[in-house]
Structures are given as structure tokens and as C-alpha cells.
């Protein structure tokens, strides 16, 4: 697992030492998991991951029943570092493994449709309750996704599911991201998350006042 220690603890029931990410020729592995772990995304670890994925280890050749999976927590191309400059994310490293092994990674995080569907399903009946009511009281439920990355946060799954995509000009946002070639323009652009919340609350208040006036 090419993951940070905290992410490793989320995946297993016990603590794993970082050195466990270095596979042994005598081991049997059924997959490689890649996340944001800069100290592990070096040649040694990536080459070990490559060997696992192609079944290069001796014990794998004789015992492995199926092709190991390549699993990525997400595929962000870049992120903002602690120095506020852009740095490589796990995406390029995942792409390198895909290219070298002629396989496709299973992405469990953004921007996949599966990720958003999983989150939305966690809302349970709340959406249905919001979307039901008497005549004249029915409100259309809109789910918004807010992020500073036009591709990873607001791409693919968010577009497929018709979510309201809000780009905020903070974090790793850079001027002109929303008009880059090949990107789907966001539905709304805000200077910050706080600005979006303020606008949402203001619109909600105005809508409520309007209904009260119509009722009166």
C-alpha cells in the first residue's frame, strides 16, 4: 500500500509500518493501493508495485489465481503543497503504473461517478423528504459539489450526475483554470467557500420571504 500511515490505518484493522510497503519476493499480493504518500512514490516503491501488478514475484507466479488490482484513492494530477506552490499528486504515478502494466486503475475517489453516488446514497431518505410535499410546496433538490480543482473535484462523475458544480478560487485554483482546453465550465464560480455559503443562505432567506408574502 503506497499510502500515508493514517490512510493505512483506515484500510486495515491494525497498524502497519511504512516498511511493509516494500514487498518481498516470497510474498503473495492481490493488489496495489496508491494514495497521496510522497515519501513512497519513488522508483523503488513504484517498481515494486509494477512487479506485483504483472505477477513478477516467484510465489505469485505459482499461487496467484487472478491478476492483481491497481486501486487508487483518487487521481488528482496536482495539489497545493505546504509552501502554497503546486506539487505532483498521485495521478501521474497511477497513470505511469497503468501505462507500464497495460491495465486500468480502479479509482475509488473523485472524480468517479461511483464516488459521488456512494456519498449521495449516504443521505438516505433526506433527499426524498426534501423533494416531497404538498402542491405548491414542492422544492427541487439540487446537490452542489464545491472544489478548487475543475477536473478532479468537478469533473466526470459530477458532470454525469448533473450536480451543481461550484469552483472556488482558493487552494490550488489558478487563474484561467475554468477556461482551460478540454474542461467543462463550472455552473458557478465563487471567490471562496464562505462566499458560496453566504450566497446560498441569502437566496434561501429571499425564497422563504417570498413564499410568506405570497401566502399572506
**Which range does the strand content fall in?**
5-15%
- How widely separated are the two ends? 62 Å
Oligomer: single chain
Low-confidence stretches: 15-20, 132-138
> In which order are the strands of the major sheet placed?
1-2-5
In DSSP terms, counting alpha (H) and pi (I) runs of 4 or more, how many helices?
Answer: 8
The proportion of residues forming helix, as a percent range, comes to 25-40%
Average pLDDT over all residues: 82
Q: Describe the main β-sheet briefly.
A: 3 strands, parallel
Total beta-strand segments = 8
Radius of gyration: 22 Å
SSE order, one letter for each helix or strand: HEHHEEEHEHHEHEEH
Shape: elongated
Structural class: alpha/beta
Amino acid at each position: 500500500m503506497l499510502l500515508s500511515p493514517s490512510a493505512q490505518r483506515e484500510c486495515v484493522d491494525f497498524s502497519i509500518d511504512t516498511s511493509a510497503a516494500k514487498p518481498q519476493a516470497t510474498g503473495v499480493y492481490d493488489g496495489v493501493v496508491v494514495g497521496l504518500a510522497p515519501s513512497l512514490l519513488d522508483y523503488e516503491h513504484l517498481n515494486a508495485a509494477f512487479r506485483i501488478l504483472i505477477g513478477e514475484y516467484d510465489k505469485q507466479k505459482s499461487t496467484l489465481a487472478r491478476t492483481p488490482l491497481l486501486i487508487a484513492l483518487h487521481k488528482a494530477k496536482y495539489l497545493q503543497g505546504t509552501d502554497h506552490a503546486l506539487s505532483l499528486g498521485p495521478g501521474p504515478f497511477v497513470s505511469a503504473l497503468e501505462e507500464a502494466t497495460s491495465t486500468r486503475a480502479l479509482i475509488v475517489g473523485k472524480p468517479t461517478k461511483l464516488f459521488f453516488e456512494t456519498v449521495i446514497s449516504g443521505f438516505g431518505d433526506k433527499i426524498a423528504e426534501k423533494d416531497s410535499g404538498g402542491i405548491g410546496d414542492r422544492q427541487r433538490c439540487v446537490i452542489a459539489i464545491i472544489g478548487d480543482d475543475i477536473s478532479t473535484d468537478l469533473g466526470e462523475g459530477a458532470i454525469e450526475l448533473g450536480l451543481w458544480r461550484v469552483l472556488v478560487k482558493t487552494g490550488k485554483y489558478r487563474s484561467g483554470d475554468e477556461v482551460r482546453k478540454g474542461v467543462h465550465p463550472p455552473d458557478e464560480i465563487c471567490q471562496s467557500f464562505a462566499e458560496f455559503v453566504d450566497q446560498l443562505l441569502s437566496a434561501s432567506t429571499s425564497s422563504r420571504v417570498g413564499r410568506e408574502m405570497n401566502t399572506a
